[in-house]
Write a structure and sequence with these properties.
The protein is of the alpha+beta class. It is built from three helices and ten strands. Among the domains are: 44 residues, Ribbon (Cysteine Rich Protein); 46 residues, no CATH class; 40 residues, no CATH class. Strands 1-2 form a two-stranded antiparallel sheet. The protein is rod-shaped, with a radius of gyration of 34 Å. The termini are far apart.
């Protein structure tokens, strides 16, 4: 900035924030690079060169590059919007529900369910919430998980969770049976 002891600026001056500089004196506040004719940034009313400005920016947790536009804060980190993605499918998670696993990896909810949901012992598919639901229903029997619709008698197909007379699980030799089919199998074993 020009003060009384500096020579007068008649020709070739530069101005910034209502201050007038000699061209040779118009420098980056941090590194003293001459700024006349160059792009610069105004940080706390001081001119800063592009390189020093980039050094002031937060770095993306994922790619380690400076974030100069919109940033996203999540899971203790700062990210470019396009860098905050599902670790399974790489879908951008800006504005989308997500969750983390035990290792703090980020997943969209469908990928998390696909990867970590308990598997049905009958169909092998994950037991996940139905469309529009937040919770899933799981039947556990004989240390195995089942979808309610897969929890059936292995002989007659009766839903073991239904309210029908004789429904309910009557396991025999690690198999699921309704009361009637269990009785029939026990009779067959007794006569064999």
């Amino acid at each position: 900035m020009i003060n009384v002891s500096s020579p007068r600026v008649d020709v070739g001056g530069a101005s910034h924030q209502m201050r007038v500089f000699h061209v040779a004196c118009f420098k980056c506040k941090k590194c003293d690079t001459k700024l006349a004719g160059s792009s610069f940034y105004n940080i706390d009313n001081d001119p800063i060169c592009d390189k020093c400005y980039q050094d002031t920016l937060e770095k993306c947790t994922k790619c380690q590059k400076p974030i100069s536009d919109r940033l996203l804060r999540a899971c203790g980190g700062t990210f470019h919007v396009n860098c905050f993605t599902c670790s399974s499918c790489n879908k951008t998670l800006d504005g989308i529900p997500f969750t983390t696993d035990a290792q703090n990896n980020v997943h969209c909810v469908p990928c998390f369910h696909e990867k970590f949901a308990p598997r049905c012992a009958v169909c092998g598919k994950g037991i996940v919430p139905q469309e529009g639901e937040k919770e899933s229903v799981r039947v556990v029997a004989m240390d195995k998980s089942f979808h309610p619709d897969c929890y059936k008698c292995e002989d007659c197909g009766l839903l073991l969770s239904s309210k029908v007379e004789g429904a309910g699980c009557y396991p025999l030799d690690s198999h699921l049976y309704c009361k009637t089919c269990n009785s029939n199998r026990l009779r067959m074993q007794a006569t064999a």
